[in-house]
């Protein structure tokens, strides 16, 4: 007898607690009434149904067995409507029976519809709750009643699981139910992406044709139980605000109307699927809503749905004014909103002006238009000439880069003499003679030409001549320093430059590459030929995309050499501007015609560089000096030397002073590697020997690729 006591105390506590909670609801005849439970029972005619007393499933913390042991009895009543007269239910034990805390109908009939109340009470306590039961027949020619369906939504292209709901009472514990699925009450051959698992139907990727009614069917004794779910498919949830279709969002729409005329402004917008939220679209005048204007003449219509598909809608709303007045003029805004943002489109109502178009007005407008066309045409055809004219007469010199020593650095790849052709001769003549001569002597620019001006600044020892890598590194560092001291970088792009990847030095040196990528130096690319047929032309395109500040100018052969050609005007426009008269050419700077080399009339060459070149020529002419060349170099230099017109003196004894007497500066001596290594040249053909002799005796010609692996042919 002691076992039930704790439960009685617990139940007593629960009942008291519940009475306190519902004291505001009141009680009927001393019994706490929980009204109608939220769970509503719906069943088709002829199907079994079980109504459970909801008190044991959410109102008290005791089950039916505990309630019985505590001396509480459970009674059932039925009424036609909530609050109406209730009469006790007498169970026949066959079609309608009481089983513990529930009532079973096997099967349900139409007269069984109504409210069923279960009352749990004893002499002291009483608690009551009602449950509703609806019994209906199937719709005509269908296996379900449209008012008793479950509803599910699925987003397009996403997965969805449809559950056979409300069949828990018809499945024996531990048993696997045999459920048959139908669509629109008909058997269906399901596609592979739809799987049937126990009491669910799983769709891996929802399609638009999956919309419809899905019915699950199972047997319960001699009865058939069916549950139907209507599946609707929507577009994926949008993450963008609505889009206004009209009027335009990007600009103000101005509508001119006469005073007194009717006005009808329509705003239409497209809304993506946002769940069950209705589209929000409305008009405002300034910062006031239309309903706040207190003008009966100005009205806003209801929102009209133009079209709808998978939850996406196109809607419109109109603003009407019966008769336009002066006070109605102004700005009107159409707003559209959803949970992702708001957009607006503006319309300005303006008074229509009566313009009197006269012959004078039309003629004036025509003249202005004609003049404008002429000016635009003139600018298009002579833009560079106009810019140069303005810069020469009204412009100021470039102050950007005043601390730099050179106006431009010239990069060019020489062609081997044995590969010369008419075209390559013209290109070399242009790059080494015409281009420097015109820019320096005619326009007064100061160019840096590596073959002529490169004087290394790092210290050097005899051992460095035996280390190709260090010499190459020193050369690259000096090139980077010289490019950094130039305002422009001019690249003469020839087929030889492309084949030999003449831009490689700008990729090897990090400083040079950063200057091109960041736009620190402006690059002028002169294309001397059609390069598209060359094997690695795609690398040229990649180089162009790498350079941030790039100008490409076409050199079209000898016709472009004339000073009045478009080529020079375009090149001059891209060069830094300096107010300077063309330089006069003195006798000291001009080379004798018979002595002109590949540079033509160029500026003086540094004494140190020339002296090193002179020593090279001497070493080439006298093989007996090769063994001592690593420890000696010519120091009997004059202050200034000119290309192919310098003098040198051979010290007594036929030997050269040590290289250390040159100071801390090292030079790039134009010496074939065969001489530096103390080797004798191999036997050659007469033609090849004559070319090598000419090259060896030329103090300033760069080394050929077969002569050195460290002296670059890219200048």
From TrEMBL:
Signal peptide: 1-18
Region of interest (Disordered), residue spans: 676-702
Gene Ontology process terms (BP): negative regulation of exocytosis; nervous system development
PROSITE patterns reported in the protein's UniProt record: IG_LIKE, TIR
CC per GO annotation: cytoplasm; plasma membrane; synapse
Compartments where located: Cell membrane; Cytoplasm
Topology in membrane: Single-pass type I membrane protein
Keywords: Cell membrane, Cytoplasm, Disulfide bond, Glycoprotein, Hydrolase, Immunoglobulin domain, Membrane, NAD, Receptor, Repeat, Signal, Transmembrane, Transmembrane helix
GO molecular function, one term: hydrolase activity
Transmembrane segments: 361-382
SUPFAM superfamilies according to UniProt: Immunoglobulin, Toll/Interleukin receptor TIR domain
Domain Ig-like residues, every copy: 46-134, 162-232, 242-350
InterPro entries, sorted: Ig-like_dom (IPR007110), Ig-like_dom_sf (IPR036179), Ig-like_fold (IPR013783), Ig_sub (IPR003599), Ig_sub2 (IPR003598), IL-1_rcpt_fam (IPR015621), IL-1_rcpt_I/II-typ (IPR004074), TIR_dom (IPR000157)
Bias-annotated ranges (Low complexity): 679-689
Matching SMART domains: IG (SM00409), IGc2 (SM00408), TIR (SM00255)
Residues covered by the TIR domain: 404-575
Database matches in PANTHER family: INTERLEUKIN-1 RECEPTOR ACCESSORY PROTEIN-LIKE 1, INTERLEUKIN-1 RECEPTOR FAMILY MEMBER
Membership in a protein family: Belongs to the interleukin-1 receptor family.
Function: May regulate secretion and presynaptic differentiation through inhibition of the activity of N-type voltage-gated calcium channel. During presynaptic differentiation may regulate both synaptic vesicle accumulation in axon terminals and subsequent axon terminal remodeling.
Protein's name according to its UniProt entry: Interleukin 1 receptor accessory protein-like 1b
Organism: Takifugu rubripes
Species lineage: Eukaryota, Metazoa, Chordata, Craniata, Vertebrata
């Amino acid at each position: 007898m002691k076992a039930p006591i704790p439960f009685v105390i617990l139940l007593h506590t629960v009942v008291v607690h519940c009475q306190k909670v519902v004291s505001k609801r009141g009680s009927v005849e001393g019994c706490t009434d929980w009204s109608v439970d939220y769970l509503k029972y719906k069943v088709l005619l002829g199907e079994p149904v079980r109504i459970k007393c909801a008190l044991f499933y959410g109102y008290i913390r005791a089950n039916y067995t505990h309630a019985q042991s505590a001396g509480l009895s459970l009674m059932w009543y039925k009424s036609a409507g909530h609050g109406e007269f209730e009469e006790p239910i007498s169970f026949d034990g066959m079609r309608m029976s009481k089983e513990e805390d529930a009532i079973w109908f096997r099967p349900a009939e139409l007269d069984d519809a109504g409210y069923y109340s279960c009352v749990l009470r004893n002499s002291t306590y009483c608690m009551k709750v009602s449950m509703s039961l609806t019994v209906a027949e199937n719709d005509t020619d269908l296996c379900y009643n449209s008012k008793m369906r479950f509803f599910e939504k699925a987003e397009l292209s996403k997965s969805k699981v449809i559950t056979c709901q409300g069949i828990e009472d018809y499945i024996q514990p531990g048993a696997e139910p045999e459920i048959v699925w139908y669509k629109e009450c008909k058997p269906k051959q399901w596609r592979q992406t739809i799987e049937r698992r126990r009491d669910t139907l799983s769709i891996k990727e929802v399609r638009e044709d999956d919309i419809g009614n899905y019915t699950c069917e199972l047997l319960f004794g001699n009865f058939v139980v069916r549950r139907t779910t209507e599946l609707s498919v929507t577009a994926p949830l949008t993450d963008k605000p609505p889009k206004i279709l009209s009027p335009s969002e990007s600009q103000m729409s101005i509508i001119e109307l006469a005073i007194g005329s009717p006005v009808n402004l329509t705003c239409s917008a497209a809304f993506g699927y946002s769940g069950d939220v209705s589209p929000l679209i409305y008009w405002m005048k300034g910062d006031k809503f239309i309903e706040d204007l207190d003008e009966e003449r100005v009205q806003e219509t209801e929102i009209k749905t133009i079209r709808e598909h998978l939850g996406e809608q196109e809607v419109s709303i109109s603003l009407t004014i019966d008769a336009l007045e002066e006070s109605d003029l102004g700005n009107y805004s159409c707003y559209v909103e959803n949970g992702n943002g708001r957009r607006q489109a503006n319309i300005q109502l303006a008074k229509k002006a009566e313009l009197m178009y006269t012959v004078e007005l039309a003629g004036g407008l025509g003249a202005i238009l004609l003049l404008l066309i002429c000016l635009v045409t003139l600018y298009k055809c002579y833009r560079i000439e106009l810019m140069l004219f303005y810069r020469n007469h009204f412009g100021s010199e470039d102050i950007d880069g005043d601390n730099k020593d050179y106006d431009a650095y010239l990069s060019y790849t020489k062609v081997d003499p044995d590969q010369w052709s008419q075209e390559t001769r013209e290109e070399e003549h242009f790059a080494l003679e015409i281009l420097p001569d015109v820019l320096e002597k005619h326009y007064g620019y100061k160019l840096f030409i590596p073959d002529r001006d490169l004087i290394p600044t790092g210290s050097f020892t005899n051992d460095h001549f035996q280390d190709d890598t260090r010499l190459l590194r020193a050369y690259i560092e000096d090139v980077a320093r010289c490019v950094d001291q130039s305002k422009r970088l001019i690249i003469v792009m020839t087929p030889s430059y492309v084949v030999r990847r003449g831009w490689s030095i700008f990729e090897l040196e990090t400083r040079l590459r950063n200057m091109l990528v960041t736009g620190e130096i402006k690059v002028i690319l002169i294309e001397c030929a059609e390069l598209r047929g060359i094997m690695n032309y795609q690398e040229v395109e990649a180089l162009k995309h790498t350079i941030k500040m790039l100008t490409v100018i076409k050199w079209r052969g000898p016709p472009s050499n004339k000073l009045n050609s478009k080529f020079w005007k375009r090149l001059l426009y891209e060069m830094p501007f300096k107010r300077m008269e063309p330089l006069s050419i003195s006798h000291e700077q001009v080379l004798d015609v018979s002595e002109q080399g590949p540079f033509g009339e160029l500026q003086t060459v540094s004494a140190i560089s020339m002296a090193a070149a002179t020593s090279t020529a001497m070493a080439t002419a006298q093989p007996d000096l090769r063994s001592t060349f690593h420890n000696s170099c010519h120091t009997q230099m004059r202050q200034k030397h000119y290309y192919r017109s310098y003098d040198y003196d051979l010290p007594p004894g036929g030997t050269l002073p040590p290289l250390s007497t040159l100071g801390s500066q090292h030079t790039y001596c134009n010496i074939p590697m065969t001489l530096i290594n103390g080797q004798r040249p191999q036997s050659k053909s007469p033609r090849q020997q004559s070319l090598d002799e000419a090259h060896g005796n030329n103090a300033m010609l760069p080394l050929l690729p077969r002569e050195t692996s460290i002296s670059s042919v890219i200048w």
